[in-house]
Design brief:
Structural class: mainly alpha
Strand content: under 5%
Shape: globular
Largest sheet: none
Number of strands: 0
Helix content: over 70%
Order of helices and strands: HHHHHHHHHHHHHHHH
Distance between the termini: 14 Å
Number of helices: 16
Length: 383
């Protein structure tokens, strides 16, 4: 075993998350005061760092910590190699976008992730109940990789302007955050909040959630193709996931949970309800036609559910910090994105200026959480 490898892994992961949100802040500044960089290139760096360097890595570390006192040596080395690839993407994307170096690092990260998930699959068999959910997550990771692997052939066929090129990216994102990340979250919820999880119940939840994830891919197709069948399939998948969410959360003794956990559960339910609402054409058209609403939805999932859950599980915060600082700034940021620009113009501010101010306050709370986490790592670095 490598000594203190959990602390080292968390230091790298927290640092990448911190860099990712700062890049997000720079993107918001650029709307108010152009900074001279290529916006799309920096956006690629921001999204890859947050998705792979922060969310995926942190959820994996939380899961491994439930099963191991220290990371197994090979798993640790694979994890570090994957984070090195994220660092490579972070340093190459801002300068060249999708080009030789960034594609090489992202491809290598994908290959290394296969190796790590093969290891995780084997570990999951020693946990017959929650291991089921973890294996669902791994399957969706493999499915999601079809998206990036198809980009090369699409580029070779000069189909960058074809809707299917964008759909390849959407395919990857959908099965990452509605598949891999969502099922890792379910596994952690089952481990942390459900006292005596039943194998039969988790299989039922897993199958329903997985079927819903496949069907809700229709939501992403709706961005490029307007057909009523897509709305119907999306509704079926969303309704199925809402039912599975009820089965998952029903055994949790919510009244005994701290307020921060109650908020997280409320947001998990809200996410499932929003998916159902997004199946109706009028709302779907509103989201697909308004970049601010789409961004609000993505922030809702990444900053409103996954990230607070990670901080809560890792730092053990009960309620005070989240209720007083993080949640208010997060919800205000969402309001800033959802309200129309004409509303903000009445107070002589552009919508971009309002979002920048509110997101800046949210980033300040993120800094506090990250430094708290880094302090914890260094405090126990000799244990």
């Amino acid at each position: 075993m490598i000594k203190n490898n959990f602390n080292t892994a968390w230091i790298v992961t927290l640092s990448l998350g911190l860099i990712g949100v700062i890049l997000g802040l720079l993107l918001r500044v650029n709307f108010v005061q152009p900074l001279g960089f290529n916006f799309q290139y920096v956006l690629h760096a921001h999204s890859h760092t947050m998705l792979l360097g922060w969310l995926l890595s942190a959820l994996l570390l939380l899961l491994y910590r439930q099963w191991f006192y220290r990371l197994p040596t090979l798993d640790y080395l694979l994890f570090v190699a994957m984070q090195f690839c994220v660092l490579g993407m972070l340093l190459s994307f801002p300068f060249q976008g999708y080009a030789a170096w960034s594609i090489s690092f992202s491809s290598l990260h994908l290959v290394l992730s296969y190796a790590l998930f093969i290891r995780l699959w084997r570990h999951s068999k020693k946990h017959p109940i929650l291991g089921i959910i973890v294996r669902f997550a791994i399957v969706f990771h493999v499915i999601s990789s079809i998206g990036p692997f198809s980009l090369g052939p699409l580029m070779a066929l000069q189909m960058q302007d074809n809707p299917w090129y964008q759909q390849a990216i959407f395919f990857y994102l959908h099965f990452q955050y509605n598949g891999l990340l969502w099922f890792l979250t379910i596994a952690l919820i089952g481990q942390k909040w459900i006292t005596h999880p039943s194998r039969k119940a988790l299989v039922k939840i897993g199958v329903a959630m997985a079927t819903g994830t496949l069907l809700t891919w229709a939501h992403t197709l709706d961005f490029s193709f307007n057909h009523l069948l897509l709305n119907v399939l999306g509704f079926m998948g969303s309704a199925l996931q809402l039912l599975a969410g009820y089965w998952l959360l029903r055994p949790i003794h919510i009244k005994k949970q701290p307020k921060a956990v109650k908020w997280l559960i409320l947001l998990l339910v809200a996410k499932l309800i929003v998916q159902v609402l997004g199946s109706f054409p009028a709302i779907a058209d509103l989201v697909t036609g308004n970049r601010f609403w789409l961004l609000a939805y993505l922030h809702f999932i990444f900053l409103g559910i996954f990230s607070p859950l990670i901080f809560h599980f890792y730092l053990g915060f009960k309620s005070a910090f989240f209720l007083r600082f993080y949640w208010p700034f997060f919800f205000l940021t969402e309001i800033g994105l959802l309200l129309p620009a004409t509303f903000w113009n009445q107070i002589r501010l552009s919508q971009h200026q309002v979002i920048l101010i509110l997101y800046g306050l949210l980033v300040a709370t993120w800094l506090a959480l990250s430094f708290k986490g880094l302090k914890k790592c260094f405090r126990f670095s000799k244990i």
